[in-house]
Write a structure and sequence with these properties.
Elements lengths: L9 E7 L4 E6 L3 E4 L7 H4 L10 H8 L3 H13 L1
């Protein structure tokens, strides 16, 4: 086997966008993530929509049922 081909592993600090930090081992010293086990919807049970430029709202408008569209229009005329 070849010698000196394996990378050096050291303690790494992982920082999440939610503010959570924890330590692990990696070849990279600082790791920045968008989601972690503290804020990921799968682990927390809470749904979080990351809406970019109103895409979720446009999707809902496009695929809204005809009955719901009529009710939505009636509500908007009243206000």
């Amino acid at each position: 086997m070849k010698t000196d081909i394996h990378p050096e592993y050291a303690t790494a600090v992982v920082k999440c966008a939610c503010g959570n930090t924890f330590e692990t081992r990696s070849t990279i010293a600082d790791i920045h993530t968008d989601v972690c086990a503290e804020c990921h919807p799968f682990y927390t049970g809470k749904q979080r929509l990351v809406d970019t430029a109103g895409r979720v709202e446009r999707f809902r408008q496009k695929y809204l049922s005809p009955d719901a569209k009529k009710a939505g229009k009636a509500e908007s005329k009243e206000s």
